[in-house]
TrEMBL record:
This is Uncharacterized protein. Gene3D superfamilies: Glycosidases. It comes from Paenibacillus baekrokdamisoli. InterPro entries: GH, GHL6. Pfam families: GHL6.
Amino acid sequence: MPDIPDFGANFSAKAFAKTLKDANVEYVNVFAKCNIGFAYYPTEIGVVHPHLKFDMFGEIVKECRKVDIGVTAYFNAGLDHEMARKHRDWTVVNKEGQVIYGDRTANFFRNMCFCSGYRDHLLNMIREVAERYPVEGFFLDCMVVNPCYGNECLEGVRERGMDPLNDEHVLAFAKETLLDFSREVKRIVGPDKFLYLNGLDHADTEGLRTHVELECLPSGWSYDFFPAQVAYARNLGQQVFYMTGRFNVNWGDYGGLKSKASLLNDCWDALSNGVPTSIGDHMHPRDGLESAVYDVIGEIYEELERYEPWTDNARLLPTSGF
Ligand SMILES: [Zn+2]
């Protein structure tokens, strides 16, 4: 949030990288721009967190590379409350003509429209990070197709010979707009770096994504979710990850720390399906990573590393009666 006055005051990128290294972490996806819309590097295009006084993202990239940890840049694409606040015309207009709706205490009460100036704003920020930092790739979050009834979108619907009064046409236009944006991101990122567009259907991102990350915090949104998702995803011919997290309920449930048994269950679940895991965390805004979290992750990853002769490049073999 913008009003954290001592944001990053005790943060050390060196300690951050060491904590990850000691916990056997090989890659980390780090926030370049968050869902509130702030940048964590000295951007010339976006808005830096009001209380950040140094290049947090840049220092993380530098220190992680020193210890052979790859860094990808996280951008929240679908949400940007700072830009929504400054440019109401960059937000999705719902069918009732509202730009703010639903639960105001949650995240998605206001969404960004990719048929607006926001498209170029975000593309320029992604280009800025791609040119400035030696990142391994990009992760774009909250890539949700929201039908937009704003004037620019409805004119776009009509230009394509579709009907602005037909909800399916408006939705189809929103999806094509988001995919067109994604194709431009792919051109900026290039063919050799990781790209994942979280939220879009896998059927729509063929040729754009470099791998598949299945987001699932099972203790929050059911233990039935991952098995069905992975059964489909592992047939797409790409590296698949189980993206779980240290949270018991949902992303950022502060103070929540999953027990080792619970987190290990997710990792075994992934391995039994032939895929590795990533573990999501929420960093303390003033102090950095919480050592209790990485004690647990370190113990788990040490165990998983011992299995690697059998699990690396393993493939799930379906059996009859499965
Ligand atoms: Zn729109």
